[in-house]
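Reposting from the mailing list since nobody answered there.

I have sequence plus structure tokens for a pair of proteins and want to know whether others read the tokens the same way I do. The first protein:
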Amino acid sequence: MDTFKKGGLLGTRRNALAQPTRKTFYATIHDFIERELGLAYAHASPPGDEKRYLVYKQAFNLFIEEFKTYKDILSDIKNEYEKRMEKLQEQCQFLRPLQTQVNIMRLETAAEVSNATQKTHELLEKFRYGFFQCRDALAKRT
């Protein structure tokens, strides 16, 4: 029972001693992120923006270096995340030309619809004109 209490005290003491260091490190990382976002003019950028991503990537590297005990697993996590990001970027590069083609087709279709609408109006006007001429001609005969 005494060992448990000693271990508990020791653990509490360690946590109490480490807490200011963690707070200082947190403040350092937070200040780093804020400063770098400002330097990159990325504060107003939406989440997921390349500039913001690079700042947070650097911050995560600092985090990995600080916590050497977890360096291997944190590096693995970072590497998997970056591989996924690369794959998504490749997919985006593939989709960009397709998106351009869709936009061109949308514009062409809108132009065709506009032309068809104009022709329809012209035909209706011709039909109305022809109808009224026929009506007037019939009225003159009777």
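The second protein, same order (residues first, tokens after):
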Amino acid sequence: MTQRALFAVATTLLIGSATGCTAYIGGGSTGSSAQPGSGGATATGTPGTPGNPSTPGGGASSSVPTKPGTVDPANPPDPNAAGPMPLRRLTQGEYNNTVRDLLGVTTNPANNFPSDVDLNFIFRRFGDVSTLDASRMQEAAEAIALTVDVTKLAPCTATDATGQTACAQTFVTSFGLHAYRRPLVADETTRLMALYQVGRTTLTLDYPGGIKLLIETMLQAPGFVYRWELGPVTPTLEGTVVHLAPYEVASRLSYFLWQTMPDQALFDAAAAGKLATPQDVEAQARRMMDDPKAHNMMASFFQQWLSLDQVAARPKDATVYPQFNDALKASMNAESLAFIDNVAFQGDGALSTFLTANFSFVDQTLAPVYGVTGASATAAKLSLNPAQRAGLLTQSAFLTVTGATDGSNPVKRGRKVYERLLCGVLPPPPPNVPPAAPASAGGTTRMTHNCAPRLAIPSWIRSGSPSRITTASASTAPPTTAYPSMQPAPSRSMA
């Protein structure tokens, strides 16, 4: 058996006993959220039952969309609860950021994992651990462990086996705290040290090899892969609500504001019990918002919320948009990032500014799209025509991802606004809705989308109530008169 195979066997023996109480590994693809099993808090638990991403926490879903925020009078929520706590895996971005801050790895290994895009949810999240997921995580852990400089991460001057074992014990305690975002429990430490001994004896590894085996293993352990900062211990209850432990608060803060693991200041605050009051949490949050990592988090939030990160993947008809190339896509992305950062951290941070500002950050590649002059090679703040532009929803990235390949698509843009800003839920269109005329038919965008018979606006839209959206209510009105003719199409811009 090769050394890599022996590594895999040893790692599997350790991790396999722990995954039973956290999730399960299956052969299917990702797509639904795994929930913790009902087994005990130790390694004897049973695999969890996969949940439905549209109903986190196992709640039932309805085929008819309902108004967001609707409360069942017969089952009101606990006003003191923070909501269900599903067992979440680190997303690709969180994994990359965490190994960067934990081990200095900047190669973004999670980019090779299966996609964490959930079509049933706005933001990125992983589902069950498929066989492919497990394989890619193992490959990433192996590659990362090979690059570690043990002399810096786990220095040890001892030359005898007993002394080196003591060094390994110290490493497991200190590194485990940071990797699992909480102190290890005794059973975890015991199993890790048992693995270290297997590495030194059965695998005939030296001290650095034993440490690398531990790192490889811990990067695949549930404590690292999942946001499970409570660990296999009995939770503290306040009535029927689980009280968040200090390390859970620290981790929630760091992944919410930084999309990565806590820094040393947060670990120290958790250890000292300085995350127990609202004042403690606010002080840490204000400190964290001054860190550059908060800027990356803010950009990521807007990119996922409005799908701005999909610009590079959007195809466009080259005959209609000959200027749409990789350089223009990069300029669009740079514009979004610069605008979001400016409003959030240099401006007033108001939502109204995000949605109504008549300025943006334009370079000379993007300038022709806006019809402005004076742009340089790098994105700089420029005023835009307020009659045409107002905030993110009229900027190039949003219009690109919500447009068609050969023109504008006000239907897609309207749906995005309705669902992402107004929290509405739209059902699939009824079968009698006619398609819009193709852009090649000519005419303005308004004419293109009105040249077919139009449906009357249902009463639930006029009333602004999404709770009454049904297929029937959207298809009961007779068509009205179509535009009798269309003029030749004007030249089209990217917007």
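Reply #1 (J.P.):
I read it the same way you do. Residues 430-495 form one domain.
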